[in-house]
Amino acid sequence: MVENKYIFKIKDFSVYYGNFKAVSNVSLDIESNKITAIIGPSGCGKSTLLRSLNRMNDLILHSRVEGQVLFQGVDIYGKDTDVIELRKRVGMVFQKPNPFPSSVYENVAYGPKIRGMKKKGHLDEIVENALIRADLWKEVRDKLNESGMSLSGGQMQRLCIARSLAQEPEVLLFDEPTSALDPISTANIENLLQELQKTVTIVIVTHNMQQAARISNYTAFMYLGEMIEFGDTDTIFVNPKNKLTEEYITGRFG
Prior knowledge:
Elements: E1 6-17, E2 20-31, E3 35-39, H1 46-52, E4 63-71, E5 74-75, H2 83-89, E6 90-93, H3 104-114, H4 120-133, H5 137-140, H6 153-165, E7 171-175, H7 183-196, E8 201-205, H8 209-215, E9 218-223, E10 226-232, H9 233-238, H10 243-249
């Protein structure tokens, strides 16, 4: 079992946009079925590091990487990597809810349909299961044919989570998933993430330090592209080893 403890092993990893080094020599192990939070001031490389885990940075012109990102022991930047398959296994939910302009049902069924799933009965099952796991089924089961865009902000974000869950990912990446939401919707999403970690590994970038403290098992603090400190969340927030970490957490900068 021990060799599977870490789903990601990041080794001496750097990301460049042209000549700019956005992430600098980061090494980090991410444990399976835990919530790992990445915190730090704006522009410190948090989202760049997060997007590196399913190669979303490939979509940015003049981006390149050095070092390794091992997912289940395989380097995702190796030449044989199937990026579409990687993004199925490592899903992503963005800051702003971005449902497709189609029905609730079609939003969730999209991924399985793309993969060739045609049987309606099977699709119905996948859609229902994903919506239940995203804690949205009770609210939308009578609205499956209505537009996903007609839902509230919090519901749209859970719909986007359900859309990812329909692909049966092993990891979900969240980039500031609650920054556009009200406190009640935020609490719903936080409760949901804690429930999901039983079956999915979660990595979340957040500006909200209270959120990181509330929901994560581990916290990484980044500053100017570097990983300053990483450890279990209680230690990082209560007894950080690095002075920079302490100053950021106590609000002296950032």
